[in-house]
């Protein structure tokens, strides 16, 4: 069985947390969103991932209502984009230093805290998603300067990176990066070297899109026949196999699967009890890795 906890910043947390983005699907059913997050905490979740632009502030507002200091839940947020109500996309890039600072202030306000435990700088250099253009093309050093200043001011406690390249991570190491969030899954392992660097530097690896397939034409772990065969042999779902592989693959992996459904939440938490033996891991490791480095917008 895999280790059940791992380090994140100055904390030891459960290796399966909760990605709160999907709570925005319950925007018109706030009571359900509140109940779902409370259920996550009851199940032992002590690491929640969020952003001000999730649901135009709705998700942070639910977190503020549900989570209290005595719950001892580590809330990780991110900057690099802001809400964009009425736009073609629900968010707009906000990469400039002054925008990063404003985004931190917005997260502080919406979460109702004096200091943010961990803030991920979403760079958008790699993986599926938007790419910066025009004045949104900002040097990493300039961004790290403002993030470090915000940490020195006590507004954030720790800095993470998201959608970053291996070179970018290496450049950022002197800033004491505590986690990296990149798109990574069983079927998209482009960042294997970066994962190993994170392990060596005691940096948490927190993959988003952990089952792949976030956008059309991207590979999905749940489409793989081998994944289905393993799931059937273990009496679990293909999604659970894809998540369990990540936990077994490296000890610094922390999962933040998101859902708006209580049954799915419980199934995700149950992944920590799934054991993959060496033969099964070898079968899964043999699945072809395909790139997910696709720009949109």
TrEMBL record:
Residues 15-287 form the NADP-dependent oxidoreductase domain. It holds the Pfam family Aldo_ket_red. Keywords: Oxidoreductase. One of its GO terms (cellular component) is cytosol. GO terms for molecular function: oxidoreductase activity. InterPro entries: AKR, AKR_Detox_Biosynth, NAD(P)_OxRdtase_dom_sf, NADP_OxRdtase_dom. It comes from the Bacteria. This is Aldo/keto reductase.
